[in-house]
Amino acid sequence: MAKTAIITGSGRGIGAAIAKRLAKDGYDIVINEVSQEALDSYGAKTAEEIRALGVRCECIAADVSNYEQCDAMVKKVKELFGTIDALVNNAGITRDGLLLRMPEENYDDVIRINQKSVFNMTKLVGAVMLRQKSGRIVNLASVAGLYGNPGQMNYSASKGAVIAMTKTAAKELGSRGITVNAVAPGFIKTPMTDKLTDEQRSAMLAQIAMKRYGEPEEVASVVAFLCSDDASYVTGQTIEISGGLSM
Ligand code: NAD
């Protein structure tokens, strides 16, 4: 039976690159987006590209910060595909601003979407994987979660938590054949980083050993490794993908 992967927030950006790469590796794919509008405006196109690779691909709208919507999505995936072999917790947002000027709701929104979503999906899909006695979970953290970043008190808190949650889930699920790892990208070219100013971009570039930004496909290849049989004895780890941003 084909393996199935759910990638949250995978209509575009890094999530779409991960979905395409896992499809090339033979996984059937679930594209998730926050709303039907997001699926209609860009998720459906990503799904078409994936189907052209010869695997099955279904689109499901669910806000992953909402537990009930996650529950409904996981039930639907079980119904459609039978198994869930890989979960990539990719959905995320930024609401940047210096601490003293950050509205409380920008803090709460980022924590809810970047961090609570990982609890929701890992709990629900973890239960399915426990019964299967196998599974791969990969979380999208960030260098901001490892080192902090000015203007990202909310985002760095959420991603630091994701790294800690990765380790806890790895310890709880490891004895049942489930691995849980994280990747911590640096600056990757996507709609998320398109929002940054030229000043922010050049400050970032100056710190990158490889003197270039990363491509979504360069994150996808590391995630694909962590979802593969080659990574069977790797768990609880956070792999930085930043072109040598911090060493
Ligand atoms: P992006 O904004 O291009 O894509 C994120 C996707 O998540 C969007 O399609 C969005 O609609 C979806 N999404 C947002 N909220 C959601 C929700 N509640 N439920 C379901 N889907 C939701 O961003 P990206 O750059 O592709 O980022 C992907 C992941 O990688 C994020 O977790 C981000 O924090 C992380 N990351 C990105 C970078 C970077 O440089 N781009 C660096 C480090 C980490």
Question: What are the SSEs and their pairings?
Answer:
Blueprint: E1 4-7, H1 13-24, E2 28-33, H2 36-51, E3 57-61, H3 67-81, E4 86-89, H4 104-132, E5 135-140, H5 143-147, H6 153-173, E6 178-185, H7 191-194, H8 198-207, H9 216-226, E7 238-241
Parallel strand pairs: 1-2, 1-4, 2-3, 4-5, 5-6, 6-7
Helix pairs in contact: 1-2, 1-9, 3-4, 4-6
Bound molecules: nicotinamide-adenine-dinucleotide (NAD).
The site of nicotinamide-adenine-dinucleotide (NAD) has 28 residues, from helix 1, strand 2 and helix 7.
Please provide a written account of the structure.
With 247 residues, the chain is of the alpha/beta class. It has nine helices and seven strands, in the order βαβαβαβαβααβαααβ. The chain has a seven-stranded parallel sheet with strand order 3-2-1-4-5-6-7, with helices on both faces. Helix 4 links the parallel strand 4 and strand 5. Helix 1 packs parallel to helix 2 and helix 4 runs parallel beside helix 6. The mean pLDDT is 97. Bound molecules: nicotinamide-adenine-dinucleotide (NAD). The site of nicotinamide-adenine-dinucleotide has 28 residues, from helix 1, strand 2 and helix 7.
